[in-house]
Write a structure and sequence with these properties.
Layout (H helix, E strand, L loop, with lengths): L5 H21 L1 H4 L13 H17 L4 E3 L3 E2 L7 E9 L1 H5 L6 E8 L2 E9 L4 E6 L4 E4 L2 E2 L12 E4 L9 H11 L4 E3 L4 H9 L5 E8 H13 L3 E5 L6 E7 L4
Parallel strand pairs: 1-3, 9-10, 9-11
Antiparallel strand pairs: 1-2, 3-4, 4-5, 5-6, 6-7, 7-8, 11-13, 12-13
Helix pairs in contact: 1-3, 6-7
């Protein structure tokens, strides 16, 4: 029976995330070029180039297949263990020079997040979640979720994916949910929202219809930091509903 060296896989993911983030930051002038015309979803040359760099590393240094945002599955059968890659989470922010975006790489086994690496390249912050050993770190320093227990004292992060239901009833429910919290934030990056929950900057991140590659690395980091990551209702396009919390609220 083969013993999986997850520490090695984690280091591969860290390497890929850092190199992709370096590319996105240093070559932004040539990468910040729109390549589609969808009115609600921004796609840039940056997404494609970053993903290619990450896939080249994962395919050459790891034996596990990949589910990636831009190119899909590297194998028809992903198996029990596979990588999930978002080469640039917060593309619209990147495009408009809003410094809330990142590279996100996660490893899952039977859909349980094992490893999460998120590189906030604007701030040179690397978040790593090791859900095998329950270790969550920011730049090699331990992080943990907050101890806040009441929504009236807490911060909610949420978002509106490009295919959001904008019906009056759906928006009324969204507003009703928001009114319970002390503060509400929409930051445009699910991966960064996960990191903020994991590091105690917010108490809950909730969103419907987000994609698996946006949140799976963050799920590993939140759980490793003592929080709770709930992922529900995955459909055939890998859209999911998520609630990530400090597990106390």
């Amino acid at each position: 029976m083969n013993i999986i060296n997850f520490d090695k896989e984690k280091e591969i993911a860290i390497k890929a995330a850092k190199l992709a983030g370096k590319l996105l930051k240093e070559d932004k002038n040539v990468l910040n070029l729109k390549i589609n015309s969808n009115p609600r979803d921004t796609k840039l040359k940056a997404d494609i180039k970053s993903e290619k760099l990450i896939l080249d590393i994962l395919n050459s240094e790891s034996s596990y297949p990949v589910l990636a945002e831009e190119t899909g599955k590297t194998s028809d059968d992903l198996g029990d263990i596979f990588w999930v890659v978002d080469p640039l989470d917060g593309t619209a922010n990147y495009n408009r020079n809003i410094p809330i975006c990142c590279v996100s790489i996660g490893l899952v086994k039977n859909m349980k997040p094992l490893i999460g690496v998120i590189f906030d390249f604007n701030n040179d912050d690397i978040f790593v979640g090791d859900n095998i050993n329950n270790l969550a770190r920011l730049n090699n320093k331990d992080i943990k979720v907050s101890d806040i227990q009441k929504k009236t004292d807490g911060v909610l992060i949420t978002g509106l994916p490009f295919n959001t239901d904008y019906s009056e009833s759906a928006l009324k429910k969204l507003i009703s949910d928001m009114q319970i919290w002390k503060k509400v934030r929409m930051i445009g990056s699910a991966a960064m929202a996960s990191c903020y929950v994991a590091s105690g900057k917010a108490e809950l991140y909730q969103e419907k219809g987000i994609y698996l590659w946006d949140i799976i690395a963050g799920a590993a980091i939140v759980e490793s930091a003592g929080g709770k990551a709930e992922i529900h209702n995955m459909n055939e396009t890998f859209q999911v509903d998520v609630i990530f919390s400090n597990s106390k609220i």
